[in-house]
């Protein structure tokens, strides 16, 4: 990773991909859960309907001839004859594999398997529930659970079974006389249930796919719109930054233009000594060169496709800025000092950082109309390094200082209010920070912190900013 990429955050959020992964997982879980729940409900509903049909058939059969009372009086021969005649009808039905009749105490009263008659199985939860008066329909797969004792002697090759426990009541009474159990291995019912479950799972899959595709299309379209709007916003911000940068440079150009105008007015006087003419001409040339350099930097920045941060040596840059503001500082009787401790290197765009420092210095100088001191000191904070720019002016009230970084707020008559807002935004784009605080005993302190560039390149390769006399600056010096 180079220095330019280290100062910028990672790629933007891929909304489409993240939504696809998250929504696909959630919709799949919901579809599977819903399919499992509905398939169980469907199976239980079909089996319950089958059990209710069997209950009505057996209840009507035993009620018609009165043989249901045989459960309470098994010693009555007439009731036994009627009951056995009814059981012959049940045994003649092809579908039940086995039919059992239980007394209220759980004893097997009758069965299609004669060997089971008279037996009593102590553990049979379904039978106990049916004896309480509830229709119980139970299904399962043979071998999936521990085999029941009443299932002995059944065909173990057929895997799916359904058993219905039907409570029998005396007409007009809620008392349970006995329970009939019908044990089936329903091939056709099993096939119907399997087909219904397959259709249900297919419907869930189609609905889940339709929901996912619909939501994905909506999010994909929204993502395209957001990306297009983001690109338009970035373009608009770039244009706004260029406009604001141009305004900032135009503001800074006023100082050399004032120097040119003053020198030109002095030259108009015929009584100007010859020695002073050379000094005034030198001031004019220096001011014109300074304005030309700023304009060249502005054009170079405006033509760049993107502003990549570079390694910037703070010491030479601050010294060069003091050189450019030396004339204005002399006229306003402002003395500048720079901390002698060598500063570090930071990541920023050199031309824009120069304009930022010049703008802040110009504001500080204007805040000291009767003269004062402009001091630069170095600071560090974790991975950030930077400087403190402190003036000895009258300071800024707290309520005004809180609003200075708002766009279009200015304390100057006729000011556009874009200087400090632009400076703060540019510094934050470099992953840095800018803040204002009150200086002691008076004045204002501006803190600029930028990402530290820890010896990313040798010191000999760090670009040096030429001073006013053309010699490169090393450590900062005082003025």
From TrEMBL:
It is an enzyme of class 2 (transferase). GO terms for molecular function: kinase activity. Its EC number is 2.7.13.3. It comes from the Bacteria. Gene3D superfamilies: 1.10.287.130, Histidine kinase-like ATPase, C-terminal domain (3.30.565.10). Residues 248-454 form the Histidine kinase domain. Keywords: ATP-binding, Kinase, Membrane, Nucleotide-binding, Phosphoprotein, Transferase, Transmembrane, Transmembrane helix, Two-component regulatory system. This is histidine kinase. It comes from Polaromonas jejuensis.
């Amino acid at each position: 990773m180079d220095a330019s990429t280290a100062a910028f955050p990672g790629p933007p959020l891929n909304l489409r991909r993240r939504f696809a992964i998250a929504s696909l997982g959630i919709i799949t879980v919901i579809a599977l859960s819903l399919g499992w729940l509905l398939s169980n409900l469907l199976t239980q509903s079909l089996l319950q309907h089958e059990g209710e049909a069997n209950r009505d058939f057996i209840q009507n059969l035993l009620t018609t001839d009165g043989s249901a009372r045989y459960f309470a009086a098994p010693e009555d021969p007439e009731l036994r004859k009627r009951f056995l005649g009814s059981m012959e009808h049940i045994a003649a039905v092809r579908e039940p594999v086995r039919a059992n009749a239980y007394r209220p105490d759980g004893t097997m009263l009758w069965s299609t398997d004669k060997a089971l008659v008279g037996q009593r199985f102590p553990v049979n939860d379904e039978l106990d529930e049916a004896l309480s008066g509830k229709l119980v329909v139970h299904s399962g797969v043979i071998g999936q659970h521990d085999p029941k004792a009443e299932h002995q002697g059944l065909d173990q090759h057929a895997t799916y079974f359904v058993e219905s426990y039907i409570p029998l009541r005396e007409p007009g009474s809620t008392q349970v006389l006995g329970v009939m159990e019908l044990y089936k291995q329903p091939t056709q019912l099993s096939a119907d249930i399997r087909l219904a479950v397959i259709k249900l799972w297919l419907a869930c899959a189609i609905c889940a796919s339709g929901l996912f595709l619909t939501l994905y299309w909506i999010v994909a379209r929204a993502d395209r719109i957001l990306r297009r709007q983001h690109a338009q916003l970035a373009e608009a911000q770039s244009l706004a930054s260029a406009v604001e940068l141009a305004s900032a440079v135009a503001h800074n150009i006023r100082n050399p233009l004032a120097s040119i105008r003053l020198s030109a007015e002095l030259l108009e006087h015929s009584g100007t000594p010859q020695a002073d003419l050379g000094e005034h001409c030198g001031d004019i040339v220096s001011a014109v060169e300074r304005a030309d350099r700023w304009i060249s930097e502005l054009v170079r920045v405006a033509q760049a496709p993107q502003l990549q941060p570079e390694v910037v040596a703070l010491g030479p840059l601050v010294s060069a800025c003091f050189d450019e503001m030396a004339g204005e500082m002399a006229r306003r009787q402002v003395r500048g000092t720079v901390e002698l401790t060598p500063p570090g290197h930071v990541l920023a765009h050199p031309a824009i950082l120069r304009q930022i420092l010049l703008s802040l210095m110009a504001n500080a100088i204007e805040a000291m109309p009767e003269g004062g001191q402009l001091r630069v000191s170095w600071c560090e904070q974790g991975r950030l390094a930077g400087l403190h720019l402190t003036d000895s002016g009258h300071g800024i009230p707290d309520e005004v200082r809180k609003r200075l970084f708002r766009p279009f707020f200015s304390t100057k008559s006729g000011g556009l209010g874009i200087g400090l807002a632009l400076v703060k935004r540019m510094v934050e784009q470099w992953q840095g920070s800018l803040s204002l605080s009150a200086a002691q005993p008076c004045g204002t302190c501006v803190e600029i912190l930028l990402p530290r560039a820890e010896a990313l390149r040798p010191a000999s390769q760090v670009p040096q900013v030429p001073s006013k006399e053309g010699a490169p600056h090393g450590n900062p010096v005082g003025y």
